[in-house]
Automatic annotation (TrEMBL):
Residues 34-48 have a biased composition (Basic and acidic residues). It comes from the Bacteria. Residues 34-60 are annotated as: Disordered. This is DUF4169 family protein. It comes from Azospirillum griseum.
């Protein structure tokens, strides 16, 4: 004969695991330090300035 399963416990365990997966994904996605964010921002600015400096003429 099969064991009795508490469906509420099963449901709560499944939801808890789903939340843990989502939290891990968010930590990877948003978990950057202030220095990393600033470094990336400065890199974008530097590349933008470089590309703007390479333009020959304004097309207008």
């Amino acid at each position: 004969m099969a064991d009795v399963v508490n469906l509420n416990r099963f449901r709560k365990t499944r939801e808890r695991e789903e939340r843990a997966k989502e939290a891990e994904a968010n930590r990877v996605r948003f978990g950057r330090t202030k220095a990393e964010k600033q470094r990336d921002r400065m890199e974008v600015e530097r590349s933008t300035r470089f590309l703007n400096g390479q333009k020959l003429e304004d097309p207008t």
